[in-house]
Amino acid sequence: MTLTIDANTNDVIDLPECVRLLSGIKGISRRERMDDAARYLRMLSNNKSFLIELVNRQICEAQPLDAYQQSSNFSQQIVDLGGGPGFRLRANMWPRCVADAPADWERSLFAYQMPHDHNADFLTVGYWGPGYETDIYEYDPERTVGFEGEQVDIRFLERTRLTNGKVMFYRANRDIHTQLPPDDFSISINLLVADPEAVQSTKQYWFDVERGVISSSVERLDYSPFVFLCRLASMVGDGATINVLEKLAQGHSDARIRAEAFTALATLDPGSSLRHWRDASEDVDPYVQRVARAKLSAE
């Protein structure tokens, strides 16, 4: 079953050191090496500055939108932190939902209340915020073909929360989980351990756990990385982030990105939100002006 791994340590490492240590684990994809990997992942999670420093650098290095989307390590929900032979590190964003139940786009994007498996073994650790709750199940892949509507013997294991510093191990194509929206914005860091070619050729599935069937195969969705970058900055930014967001809002060539930067500024710097929206209302593009006028009218 999905394991909670005791990786209790107060040691702190930065991202390059974590990648170096993980690269030194021989046979990292073997499950018996997960304790070593979990300890390094927990040590990285103790570093509460490395991620926002990465966000600040990415905003400072902002390029025209098309070029940025081709080169960026950011997607709508995920930050690719790099990796080494047989592994990748990612940071995942988990926003809270304002309503009692997430909207369809939130459910689809963040997989809230959508039971699914994964096509690679991975470790995950709570990094920021209270963490999401998750219901965990298991099934037997050896007895599963993988077609839509197939009856699958699904067994409930537990409900747990990925709290700050908690490390969990998920088995590929065996553990099923469904995330519930966290009480507040949260981030997890994932370590995926698998042969990239094997991952590309292995399917993962959505499940209907009440009916005990496969609903469909999981398909990748393509979302703007810059939208995610600005939203992440608004949640975990610092004083330096305000400066780089202001430069982005004033200087980026794409109106949509300028609007996202102004929105992030108003969230990160609420004491000056009125000034930020007034600046946005003077933007040369009608789209940014409309966003700003709507925000100003709601003040």
Automatic annotation (TrEMBL):
UniProt protein name: Uncharacterized protein
Native source organism of the sequence: Sorangium cellulosum So0157-2
Lineage of producing organism: Bacteria, Pseudomonadati, Myxococcota, Polyangia, Polyangiales
